[in-house]
Structure formats: C-alpha cells, structure tokens
Amino acid sequence: MPNTRSEGAMKEEDQTPTDPVQLMMAMMKEMKEEAKKREDQLMRQLQEQAQDFAAALQTNRGNAGGSTKSKKMDVPVLKCPEDINLADFRDWQQRFADYTEVQKIMEECTLSGRQSLLRSGLDPAWTKLWSTGILEIDDRKDDINDIIKKILHYIREHRNPLLDRKEFLERNQHAGESIDVYYSALKSIDESCGYDVNPTCKVCDDACGHGDELQQERLRDRLICGLKDQAIQQKVLAIPFKDLTLKKALEVCRVEAASKETQASLNKSERQVNRLKERSSYKKGKIDNNPLSKSAQKADERCSNCGRKKHQKPDQCWARDKDCNNCGKTGHLKHMCRSEPKKEVNRMTIGQVKTSDDLVKITAKIGNADHQEVEWLPDTGAECDVITADCLKKVGTKVKDLRKDKAELCGPDQGRLKSLGKVTATLEREGMKYKTELHVLEKGTGPILSKAGCIALGLIPTGWPHVVNKLSLSSPDEGNGVDMLLKSQSAASIREQLFQEFPEVFPPDDEVLPLKPMKGPPMKIELLPGTSPIRRYRCNTIPLHWQDKVKAHLETMVQKQIIERVPQGEAPEWLFSMVVVPKAGTDEPRVTVDFSPLNPFVKRPMYPCRVPAEEVAQIPPGMTHFTVLDGRHGYWQVLLDKPSSKIITFNTPWGCSVT
C-alpha cells in the first residue's frame, strides 16, 4: 500500500521524544504552561476584586456626585452571648476593626454615629443588654473601644473557662487541614482558656517568662496528640523528649507534610509521563505488546454467542438454539454469557442406600389435610428430608401447592437432583413430633429421613455416633443387658423398663426384700458423761386415713429386720415419739422419729467429707456421661450395736419398737 501520510506528519513523529529524560522535560514544560495559565487567571480575578473593592470604598465615603454601583461590605456581626467564646470575640473584634479601617468611618462619624455602627454589628441579644444597662455603657462618653472592652469583660465573667479548655483538649486535626491552620486554631483556643500568659514564677517571684513555656508545652502536647496522620505523629514521637519543643514539633510536621504532598505530586507526574508515552507510541504507530490489548483485539474477531470466529451472518452461529447454563437464556453459551454469575446456594446431600428392613412408618401432616402413614428410609448421611412426587397425595398436598425451592440438592455421587419445590410438614412417630421442610423430588426411591429427623423422632440417640451404652467385651455373658435408653422416652417408660430388667433390685410393692447391710462394724452411739435417759410416753396422733398404711409399713420394717418390737411388760429406758408426715408432692405417709432431744447429748464422730469442688476435680478430663445414684433406704442398711439400739427406742400406737 502506498504511503499517504504527509511530510509534516512524518516530521512530527520524528520530533516526538522517546528518551525518558526527554519525556520528563516535555511533561515539565506542559506543567509549566498550565501553571502559567492558572497564574494569569488568578491575577485577572484579583484585579477584578480590587476594582470592586475600590468602587465600594468610593461609595461608602459618600461621594454625592458618584454614580458607581457596587456591593457594599457587610458589617461583621457578633454572636449572641449564649454562643460566643473568647476566640470568636477576638475574631469578630479584628474583623470589625478591619471593616472600620477600610471604610474610614471613624474619622468622619460622630460619637453617636460610631455607636450606631457598633450596634449594627451586634446580635439583638447584645443590643438588649446594652439598652437595659447590664453592660454599663455610657452613651455620652464611651467610644467604640470602651464598649468593646466592656463586652469582653462581660464575656469573661459569664463564660466558664472550662468550656474552652475542654474544646482545647478535644481539638484534633481535621481532614484536609494543614499543620499551620491546625496550630493557629489551637493557639486561638488556648488564648481563650483563661491561663495566665506571664504568671509570677514561684521560684523567681517575678514574671520571668515561664508562663510562655507552659503555653508552648500545652500547644506542643495538643498538637502532637491531635495529628491525623499517624506517620507524621510517629516521626515527631521519635524525637527525644528533652529535645522535643513546640518549634521542633512544628518544623518536623511541616517537613513531613510537605514531603507527602511532593510525593503525591511526583506520583501524579509519573502517571502523566505514562500517558504521554502512550500518546507518543500511538503517533508512531507502534504495536502495543500488552497481552490485554491482544485479547481485546481478538474479542472483536470472535462471535459473541459461541466464541468462535465471527460469522458473516448471525443465522450461521451454531449456538443460536442452545440454552445457556448460567442464565438459562437461549442463543449463547455459558462461557460467552454476559449475565452475572449465579450466587452460591445451599447445597444439600441426600443418601440413597436402602434395604427392606430399614423402612420406618411415619405420619406426615400438612395443615388439616387428610394424611396416612408412609414408609420412610432413615439415612444419617442425608442433610434434608426428601419425599417423591408420587407420595404427595399420601401426605395431603399437590405439586401446584409447593413453594419454590432454592436449595441445590445432590445425591451420594454429588450429582444434582431436580426439585419440584418444598412444603412444610410435621412428622409424627409414637407420640414424637418433628416439624421440617420436605423437599419434593420428581423421581426417587422413596421418602428419606435426615439425621436431624432420626434424632427428633427417637430413631437414634442425640449423641450419635458417640457411645451411649458400654458392654464388657471380656465377659459378654455378664453384660447388663439393658436396652439403649433414649432421651425421647418418658420417665415412666424408663422406670418400667428398669423394673422389668432388674426385679432383684426393684421388687414389687407387695414383696418383702431384705436389705443387705453395709460392710464394716456396727455403729455405736456414744453419749456425753452424765447424760440421763429421755422418755416421751405420749404417742402422736396419726390421721385415720393413714393408720392402715403406717401399720403395714411398720410390719414390713419388722419383716426386713430393720426394727424389732419391745416385749410387752418390758419398760424401755429411752423412749422417743414417732412422727408421721406426708411425702413431698404426694399424700402418702412418711414415718419418722423425733430424735431432736437426744442430739445435744451425742458425741459426734469426725468423718472426712470432701467438698463438691474436690469431687469434681477427681473426674478425668474428657468425660461426658455421668451417673447419679441414691442409696435405697441408706440409713436402714447401717447396723447398730445392742446398747445403741436401746437408746433410739420409739413408741407407736401399737407398741414400742427398737432399731
């Protein structure tokens, strides 16, 4: 192809800098030109403002023949007494002085005119204090300076310096605020805090300037603590404290802030150099070696639907009838889909292991609809409860009544399963209920009950697969033979099962089973020296509806050899009264004996008994199952020697008995 570019364009390309130094020089030249343009623009704005300012001066001086129309300077207004502080007052005082100096009013106005000018710069609350005499202003003598001093005196008397000191201690550097502006604000607030600038030194007894040092220390500390940039703060804190003065801290802060600004400008300049280099490369017609640009060029040459070479006609694309696996739309493939990727959804695994003996009949209820028992497969590997579409009629619902199912169901091989929807149901088995979400599959082997459902319906224990029943492997024939007890069983059913398994421990109520005595020598009751026998001849009254039960209970105790009757005609030396009380929570009688008169005369033996904390400390770590046992009539199993038995003789309506 012939070269159609002009000679001027070729010369321009030849003059384009390629060396990095030349590129930097060209960039600096452009920046210099832009700075000059900004400087010229600022000068023009300043000249326009100076002209407006001069016109305002001419108008305010009262030139009658003048016809210049310009904006007049507004009188600075002092805030109301409730909102003012000393820093704001000094700022207003300076602005008001500048205003009067610029307007040249003081030289031309009378005393009343100057007072009127000052009133125009005060908040209405100040004018009320003026007119009512609270400020003690004499309109015939006081000039503006005198009135301002009285206002300052009023502010000092009525404003608590603690407010300014609190503001000083809480003043931090704002975002985008320079070091000098931040320091000026701190110094202005400090001057309003009521500290003595030059107090009398306690050492020198003179105004030696130590007050200035205290002020500089306050400003230095607040300046460092309130810095927003932690890097600058770290630089300042690296200075030894003995050398850390206010001047040194300001110097370091200014240098660090300036270096950061310079670094930001250099980074900006580097980006501009890169842009200039890209522009010069474009002018030279160089080929960009960036792999991203190559892929972008290739993207223009590919079909946006199938990803292959671009077709001459859209009908020639073989993906025009294909469904996208990402968005589900027709006409393009997944790797060319421009829709956002699908969000991650719940992924639930469903087992499919099934034998004929593993099925369990469970009733599934959905609302008030008719229902019937369905055979379910308990699967501890399943994470959700599943039912097939052909079983919906048995649980009382239809496919059209299902809700949308957003969960992603997977089989044992992690293959996806198609869900028709889900429905809330209550599963019942032998009095136990379990509310769950049933996921409905189009096809399957049948309903599947998850691990959570198996636990809720009592098919497996709560701690499954941990050990819940331990048998002896060395002698399996001597195992306890107790069936696994589940938490879902009621207390009554567990009690009945234990009674059936251990009849020798829990006999029927009408059977008398002798108690096995405890090991060891018989117990001996030792009395204090000089103790006289105690006799209580009066027998306590027993309610009529308890008399037969109490008498039968005493006969059982005699048969179990717990007590024995005192022969008639024998007078016991010791005698106490039997007391019958109701058992806790029932109307059944409990037989007791009142030995309280005997307790003060008994020598109490010492027996080492550990506190609960010591008992718990003896439990080996990792233990999760604990058993609490209560001895059956533990006191009855303790033998007494003959002399001690006679001491605890008690009377009944049917005679005396001893233990």
TrEMBL record:
Annotated InterPro entries: DNA/RNA_pol_sf (IPR043502), Retrovirus_Pol_polyprotein (IPR050951), Rev_trsase/Diguanyl_cyclase (IPR043128), Znf_CCHC (IPR001878)
The CCHC-type domain, residue ranges: 324-339
Gene Ontology biological process: DNA biosynthetic process
Record keyword Signal present: no
MF (Gene Ontology): nucleic acid binding; zinc ion binding
Gene3D superfamilies per UniProt: 3.30.70.270, HIV Type 1 Reverse Transcriptase, subunit A, domain 1, Zinc finger, CCHC-type
Stretch list, region Disordered: 1-20, 264-296
Alphabetized SMART domains for the sequence: ZnF_C2HC
Segments of skewed composition (Basic and acidic residues): 268-287
Record key words, sorted: Coiled coil, Metal-binding, Zinc, Zinc-finger
PROSITE patterns in UniProt: ZF_CCHC
Coiled-coil ranges (or none): 21-56
Protein name per the record: Transposon Tf2-6 polyprotein
